Amino acid sequence: MAVPNPDPKRDARPTLEAVAARAGVSRATASRVVNGGAGVRQPLVDQVRRAVEELGYIPNHAARTLVTRRNGAVAVIIDEPEFRIFSDPFFSRQIRGISRELNAHDAQLVLLLVEGSGDFDRVTRYLAGGHVDGVLAFSLHTDDELPAIIARFRVPTVYGGRPEYRGAGEDAAQVPYVDCDNRGGAREAVRHLVSLGRRRIAHIAGPRDQTSALDRIDGYHDVLPDAGPELVADGDFTAEGGARAMAGLLDAHPGLDAVFVSNDLMASGALRVLRERGVRVPEDVAVVGFDDMASVAEAAVPPLTTVRQDVEGMGRLMVRLLMERLDSDTGTWPESVVTPTELVRRASA
Q: Is the peptide bond before 302 cis (omega within 30 degrees of 0)?
């Protein structure tokens, strides 16, 4: 049985020429509107957009790139192992904020995970290929090679969290970042514990190769300058790390009556150990976390008092700063942003 030939008029995709004809403008004007160019009066922009919608025209990505000199893609680089990215709600909330804001700017998110030094070559090749318009990088470490790599290719960048620029040069030090007031939030947490009459207050710290953890340690010592190093236990921002640190503190300091924990996941591990050892919270030991990850803090037993930072909002701010940088005619750098924190009181302290 013969298959009928398709109707070429019905199956042909609408062209830019067809859009221009429908809108009553030149092809060049239609191209500037469709591909994001500037210099077209608003009435003509509206006419072209109506024609695009009526005809179902799909813009050509290569043509758009030639007009705008952009790829419409932004790399999100996270220097953490994959298991942490997909198990820690902090990262999912920050990525959600970034993704929503990129969608609003009609840009695509490209996720690059860095699990070890071997991945730096892959990231270097990708950035050198000019595949993205900019970079959003977060969860950096003090010995990180990423700032130097990014600075080498002069890719517009915004950091999530105050970075260390060790070995990255002066240009990298101009790169804006978005962070919360880690030190101020830590001070507020410890002051709250002091206001409850607690006198033997320990701290479970995050990794000391990350500035957020160092700032929270400093905030703890701002309120308790005489607290010795033996009252600060190192954790790794995971529930298991918090449990190990809490067990060590209880063994070494059975008389402690409060603990400020550098993030909610570690606090959940600390609460588990306290419960297993028959220590009442908050009657015997009060606990305050940091982040206010609702899925962790509200589900904790008892519900966790913690310091809230607007993680999703910070992701959105990172995108806005990057777009400000990309849209700047002068190439100037936007200012870094430090967002406020807030103590959220629940049952643990």
A: yes
